[in-house]
Structures are given as structure tokens and as C-alpha cells.
Write a structure and sequence with these properties.
Helices cover 79% and strands 0% of the residues. The protein has one domain: CDP-alcohol phosphotransferase transmembrane (TM) domain (Four Helix Bundle (Hemerythrin (Met), subunit A)). The chain has eight helices and no strands.
């Protein structure tokens, strides 16, 4: 939803920086992934700092695309690599949160965070599978940008538990939004 509305809003303000970045977009993607892995580790003991580090990893996720577009270094492998690292990053954050709840004996919230992890992967899979069928499927309330912002905000503010419940509902709602889009687009298809 946010990425659909904002698109490449950071391209223009970051263009002057992007032309001077000596690193490849793929390296920047990997750096953001490494920051997010570290953030996941920190989340286990310090939610607020972990939330700040999640946002720092997100900065690299914005910068890699800006550098690729500004310096004409966009590639199919780069898009694939970035998407793959995003899935690993999502998993690392949600596994760290799940681990925290499991270690404290809070089994219901352990399953809530696992449910968000499953929903996150299904949101991405639904889009990829639809695109594999030749359909555009970017709709939904809870795309990756929204999930990362909400997780970071919940961790930093101390309101992680209510944020997780909202994310559980909206992540799976997004899956159903995408199912509906594909169903609607393919009603006349015959296999």
C-alpha cells in the first residue's frame, strides 16, 4: 500500500547521494540484510534498540533501489537478490520475536508471531505466483513496507503486542485481497 502510493519518492532527494555511492546495489542489499540480522539478534534483549536497527536496515533497502535506478544498474538478478534477502530479513525479525515469547513462556504470542511470519511469506508468494501467471498483484494493506514500519514502531514504542495482533489480522487479510484479485482477473480462464 505505501510502496504503491509512494513509489520512487526517495529517488529525487537521494539522487545526488546515489551517484557517488561506490558500492553495487547488490552489496547495499546485502549490507541492509546484515544490519537486519544484527537487529534481530538485538531484539531478543533490547526491543527499542532492535526497532531502531530494523529502521536502519530499511534505509539500505531504500538506498539499493535508488542506486540501481540512478546509476542504470538495475538487473533481473538484482531484483531477485533484493527480494530474496527481504524474505530472509522478515524471517529473522519474526523468528527473534517468536523466540522471545517462547523463552518467556508466552505460547499464544509465540503463535501470533509465527502466524505473522506465515502470512508475510504468503503475501509475497501470492504476488510472485500471480505474476508467474501473467497477472499484476500488488494490492493489499500489509505489504513489506507496512510490516517493517509497524514492527519497528511497536518495538520502539513498547506497544509491540497490540501491533502484532493487528499485523496478524491485516497480513492474512492482504493474502485474501490478493486471492480475490487473482480470482477476479481469472474468472474467465479455463485450465
Amino acid at each position: 500500500m505505501l510502496s504503491e502510493k509512494l513509489g520512487h519518492v526517495f529517488d529525487k532527494p537521494l539522487k545526488k547521494i546515489a551517484v557517488h555511492v561506490p558500492f553495487s546495489p547488490n552489496f547495499i542489499s546485502f549490507t541492509g540484510f546484515a544490519v537486519t540480522l544484527f537487529a534481530s539478534y538485538v531484539l531478543i534483549s533490547d526491543l527499542r534498540l532492535g526497532g531502531v536497527l530494523i529502521l536502519a536496515g530499511g534505509v539500505f533497502d531504500i538506498l539499493d533501489g535508488v542506486v540501481a535506478r540512478t546509476n542504470q544498474k538495475e538487473s533481473r538478478f538484482g531484483a531477485f537478490w533484493d527480494s530474496l534477502l527481504d524474505r530472509y530479513s522478515d524471517a529473522a525479525i519474526l523468528i527473534a520475536i517468536s523466540w522471545t515469547f517462547l523463552a518467556s513462556g508466552n505460547i499464544p504470542l509465540f503463535f501470533v508471531s509465527i502466524g505473522i511470519l506465515v502470512g508475510s511469506f504468503l503475501v509475497s508468494y501470492a504476488r510472485a505466483r500471480a505474476e508467474g501467471l501473467g497477472l499484476v498483484c500488488k494490492q493489499g494493506l500489509m505489504e513489506r513496507t507496512e510490516r517493517i514500519v509497524m514492527l519497528a514502531a511497536g518495538a520502539i514504542s513498547g506497544f509491540l503486542v497490540p501491533v502484532l495482533w493487528v499485523m496478524l489480522v491485516l497480513t492474512h487479510f492482504t493474502v485474501f485481497q490478493r486471492i480475490y484479485v487473482v480470482w477476479k482477473a481469472g474468472r474467465s480462464d479455463r485450465f
